[in-house]
């Protein structure tokens, strides 16, 4: 009987721990997720022209997915090397959120220090 009571208490403790820890253990954005969101923008970022609706949808999705300082720093760490490797126009990239009606301020540049990106 005593072991049954201990087991019940242990299960209860594990359940309470999961409730407390789970909201704080949310998975951070991955580079794959970040890049998938902004890939519809690639043509515009390289060549200009009109901004595709799917691009603005991706920018909005990124802004809503990266609300915390660590998430924005992670997004920066993903976007910085991708921007360089794809040869995008940084001016277009930095005006894109505003053009899509999104308040998202990460000014991507070849020299940005992603650890300085703030919430």
From TrEMBL:
Domain Bifunctional inhibitor/plant lipid transfer protein/seed storage helical: 31-114
One Gene Ontology molecular-function label: lipid binding
Annotated InterPro entries: Bifun_inhib/LTP/seed_sf, Bifunc_inhib/LTP/seed_store, Plant_nsLTP
Keywords: Lipid-binding, Signal, Transport
GO biological process per UniProt: lipid transport
Tree of life domain: Eukaryota
Pfam hit, one: Tryp_alpha_amyl
Database matches in SUPFAM superfamilies: Bifunctional inhibitor/lipid-transfer protein/seed storage 2S albumin
Statement: the UniProt record of this protein carries the keyword Repressor: no
Leader sequence residues: 1-28
UniProt keyword Nucleotide-binding present: no
Role description: Plant non-specific lipid-transfer proteins transfer phospholipids as well as galactolipids across membranes. May play a role in wax or cutin deposition in the cell walls of expanding epidermal cells and certain secretory tissues.
Family: Belongs to the plant LTP family.
Protein known as: Non-specific lipid-transfer protein
